[in-house]
DNA sequence: GAAACGTGGTT
DNA sequence: TAACCAAGTTT
């Protein structure tokens, strides 16, 4: 049995029943799930994905609504620029691909918000192509099982893609199965903090395990602060704007944060990023038409 | 390559 | 409780 075959066998017996894994899921459904799952846990994505797909079953449906609606629908998934990019994706797909999610990897990668991981994930899971699909789970699993290292680097490198490519079966369908299996093992068993090695299909051959599971020695990565950052202030501002039914006066936004300098920086940042638009002395979510709001 | 970018649950 | 962690992308 190869590593990939072991992984597939484990996946067949242990995979979670997630809605976007249903065989009738469209490429659009796969894309939406992949974008939502960028840095957001599965448990929070699941209900959001269902609601999103019900409202916008196709790229054309989303493209017909303003970005503000996408930002609202995004709710509290975090990184709301993803909602904006997904909307931009939908518009681009209508303009360039007849409203379809492209199957060509380069065309996928050209879409806003679609990077190395997401592009390959869609090409693989939605279209059955053979590509290395490398996310943080896969990097950790391969790092441990194959390379014997306790953890992987923070970002996917060309070397990571090449290493995973070597592990994939030549058959595209099996390769796709192996990729989702590697991810699932990383998510459920070979976890970052407390791996459940006793339940791991690679237990007997895992290089890290065979080496005594040495801990990470090097300098730990920088802790990600949140409290007091611009990100928090942006979040607070956006929270107000999401719930607003019309333009929000700047005086209202001034209430979310006392530090005027930081508040102004956060607001202008949101405007620069295209999430928010000024409207007179007020502000609205991008694409929100004040005329419509009055109705 | 580092830093920015949200949010909430777990340890 | 502070830090860690969660299917990354962009600049």
Describe this structure in words.
The chain is mostly helical and 295 residues long. It folds into 3 domains: 97 residues, Endonuclease Iii, domain 2 (Orthogonal Bundle); 100 residues, Hypothetical protein, domain 2 (Endonuclease III, domain 1, Orthogonal Bundle), CATH 1.10.340.30; 65 residues, Arc Repressor Mutant, subunit A (Orthogonal Bundle), CATH 1.10.10. Helices cover 54% and strands 3% of the residues. It has 16 helices and 3 strands. The protein has a 3-stranded antiparallel beta sheet. The longest helix has 17 residues. The protein binds a DNA duplex (11 and 11 nucleotides) through helix 2, helix 3, helix 6, helix 8 and helix 9.
Can you give keywords for this protein?
mainly alpha; 3% strand; 3 domains; Arc Repressor Mutant, subunit A; DNA-binding; 16 helices; globular; Endonuclease Iii, domain 2; three-stranded antiparallel sheet; 295 residues
State the CATH superfamily name of the largest domain. Hypothetical protein, domain 2
Could you state the order of secondary-structure elements as H and E?
A: HHHHHHHHHHHHHEHHEEH
Decide which structural class fits the backbone. Answer: mainly alpha
CATH architecture of the largest domain: Orthogonal Bundle
Strand content: under 5%
What is the CATH class name of the largest domain?
Mainly Alpha
Shape: globular
Taking strands numbered 1, 2, ... along the chain, how are they ordered across the largest sheet? 1-3-2
What is the subunit organization of this protein?
A: single chain
Spatial gap, N to C terminus? 64 Å
Number of strands: 3
By DSSP (H or I, 4+ residues per run), the number of helices equals 16
Uncertain stretches of 5 or more adjacent residues: none
Q: Whole-number radius of gyration?
A: 21 Å
CATH topology assignment of the largest domain: Endonuclease III, domain 1
